[in-house]
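Q: My labmate handed me this sequence with no annotations at all. I'd like to see what the chain might look like in three dimensions before we decide whether it's worth expressing. Could you predict it?
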Amino acid sequence: MDPLVSTASLADLLAEPSRAAGLVVLDATTTLPGERFDPDAAFLEARIPGAVRFEIDLFSDPDTTLPHMAPSQGRFARLIGQLGVCNDSDIVFYDQTGVASAARGWWLARLFGHDRVRVLDGGLPAWRAEGRPLQTGPAAMPAPRIFLPQLRTERLAGLGDLRILAERAAAGSPRPDHEPRLLDARSAGRFAATVPEPRAHLPGGHIPGAVSLPFGALLDGTRFLPVAALRARFAEAGVSSGDAVVASCGSGLTASVLLLGLEAAGLGPGALYDGSWTEWAEAILAGVPLPIATGPAR
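A: Here is what I predict for the chain of 298 residues:
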């Protein structure tokens, strides 16, 4: 299944009662560092018809201080079921302002074994720009369903996995062919440590061996680039078909955009380092001897 759905295709689905019956539209909007608005209030003001809220922080591990880490299988299954999703549901995630939150929702669904899930290309901005219908006010909640999760551990990377890659890169050892390529979705300035991190207590820099690929490089506004252009962007970052990829960012949100773009380009699924730079940098501050790199982004 193509991981993206166009505004026109979603509008057609919503207009056909027989097809819309199995469709769940989820607004996954959350704020990125520096953004100042209330996604819940904005949802009440304007949403895609029939949509319900998928709150990223709710679908996160409550037992860690790291931001919106992946929840347990049981937590995800319980919460997604409360939104009317079962294993036969077709899910479309969208974002009120961009794509990062919707991509995170898509990645979580894929992580827990659900393949019938797509992201609205262009998000709510494209939907509104085309004059498509909107709903306002409180959303009608669907009847709860039962969702049975099937965790795909290969789509999740942890600090221990990245430490092996980083220590080899820091030592100047060549990267084995089977070793995944690590892509960093943050801005080039944050990668190089020439601009401060939005979480002010964290040092700047990047994990040794990582390649900078800011998530915005895959987008034209809020829409993804065409397949050929996406493939070219990944090729510039050293990724070709068949390569294993791990994506990282500040806290696991915009890295999801890279993984969504990877699949949209037909380059296969990748894994997400969920703790990302926040976990790596906080571990260094806590005294864990992890390597750190600075300097120009590739």
